[in-house]
Amino acid sequence: MNADKEKWILLVVLSLIWGSSFILIKKSLDHFSPYQVGALRVLIAGIILMPVAISKYKLFPKNM
């Protein structure tokens, strides 16, 4: 796959993810409070990013 096509596919995927998040937030506010929605977003982001943090743990500086 050439680089231009890959960039366009990535742009479309990111646009769908970003746009759908606003729709999901709007729908979730019908059932949850704004604080609960914010907490769920932070929790889900932490769970999704945890494997990346674990895989990069050895690269963290040990001495400050």
From TrEMBL:
<dbReference type="InterPro" id="IPR050638">
    <property type="entry name" value="AA-Vitamin_Transporters"/>
</dbReference>
<keyword id="KW-0472">Membrane</keyword>
<keyword id="KW-0812">Transmembrane</keyword>
<keyword id="KW-1133">Transmembrane helix</keyword>
<dbReference type="InterPro" id="IPR000620">
    <property type="entry name" value="EamA_dom"/>
</dbReference>
<dbReference type="Pfam" id="PF00892">
    <property type="entry name" value="EamA"/>
</dbReference>
<feature type="transmembrane region" description="Helical">
    <location>
        <begin position="7"/>
        <end position="25"/>
    </location>
</feature>
<protein>
    <submittedName>
        <fullName>EamA family transporter</fullName>
    </submittedName>
</protein>
<feature type="domain" description="EamA">
    <location>
        <begin position="9"/>
        <end position="56"/>
    </location>
</feature>
<feature type="transmembrane region" description="Helical">
    <location>
        <begin position="37"/>
        <end position="54"/>
    </location>
</feature>
<dbReference type="GO" id="GO:0016020">
    <property type="term" value="C:membrane"/>
</dbReference>
